[in-house]
Amino acid sequence: MDFDDLRSEIAGLDQQLVDILNQRAELSVAIGKSKKKAEKVALELATNGSAATSSIYIPEQEKSVYNRVKSLNNGPISDNSLYSIYREIMSASISLQDKVQVAFLGPIGTFCHQAAKKKFGDSVSFVPYSNITDVFEAVETSKIGYGVVPIENSIFGSVPMTLDSFNSIKISKSTIILSEIYLPLQQTLLSNSELKKITKIYSHPMAFGQCQPWLKNNLPDVQCVEVNSTALGAQISSLEPFSAAIANSMCSSLYNINILEQNISTRSDNTTRFLVISRSQQLLQPKNADKVSIIFTLNNTKSNSIQNTLQLFDEFKFTIISINSRPAGSCFEAGTDNTSNWSYTYFIDALISQQNSSESVNLLIDGLQKYCTFVKLLGLYFNEN
Ligand SMILES: O=C(O)C(=O)C[C@]1(C(=O)O)C=C[C@@H](O)C=C1
């Protein structure tokens, strides 16, 4: 076959592909209508007037689509390429079912924006918010269906603002975790000045934390100015002579600012974990979820409560993979909480194994109530690591 024959064969297949994609999309629209009907019924049944929402994006179903497609793949297309193609097919699919909006820490060009696109594809709308608590509030008040927030970085650790937002009844009473995203990232020094003329650097505190040795060795005397996001830093610096920003290299073209130095993070495998959050009166319980996030505040009057709670995880066969703690009183609820100084809220992520019974999450939560003044199951989802 010559060149033209091969191209005309591709054209024929493209026609079939487009037809098949549209047939798939029509089925998805039908699923969307059923979801809306079910949601309406749930809303009518709900005594408090608000029912489960956020039923358009279904991580469990997406996982089964990805697994099925992978198992059907005989090459030569790689599984990763097929994954990206299906990400966009399902992105188009959910956007036909409803107007899907995803809140992220803006402005455009943040790593959070990149993580949101990695999960939701290009067919949904992304809405920037100027800080993490605003993303939570938009989701909690149902202004927007989904939010993406950073939770921890492999070099600099947890993101306090996200933990504190989960710890606030006001900000996240009905907010749950639907899924997680691991985003490998490279911090870049951006500036329209020469390196030796820089006197000020703008960035998010988490990004400064990921680049400490580089900054100490290369720009030890510059002023580091913390701003709400890396992309905001790039935006500000692009307009200010003798300043720089630490941000995603994508900000270079977005904000007209030069790349001075690539990869300034302390480790080349620098990765941030993000969470997809949504509002729901009921926790979604995907059948094969293998990760659980729980938040609890200990009752300080009971001795040994930390040991006792950790023992419960062991008893019910959960493997704890991370523990974070923050002061128990929510820093977002001035004067309204009655927690004492030096009491703590704990955030635990644990793996669920085959050994866990289907009841074990509920048993664990019941067990925790004995030692805690507050317990909430934040999410049951799939471990993407
Ligand atoms: O099965 C569903 O619930 C669908 O809405 C269909 C579909 C898909 O296109 O395969 C779309 C979006 C969901 O997140 C999962 C799957």
TrEMBL record:
Q: Which InterPro entries match?
A: ACT-like_dom_sf (IPR045865), Chor_mutase/pphenate_deHydtase (IPR008242), Chorismate_II_sf (IPR036263), CM_dom_sf (IPR036979), CM_II_prokaryot (IPR002701), Preph_deHydtase (IPR001086)
List each copy of the Chorismate mutase domain by range: 1-101
Concerning Pfam families, the annotation shows: CM_2, PDT
**CDD domains on file:** PBP2_PDT_1 (cd13630)
GO term, biological process aspect, one: chorismate metabolic process
Cellular component GO terms, alphabetical = cytoplasm
* Highest taxon, organism lineage: Eukaryota
Quote one Gene Ontology molecular function term: prephenate dehydratase activity
| Its job | Catalyzes the Claisen rearrangement of chorismate to prephenate and the decarboxylation/dehydration of prephenate to phenylpyruvate.
Q: What is this protein called?
A: Bifunctional chorismate mutase/prephenate dehydratase
This protein's species is: Smittium simulii
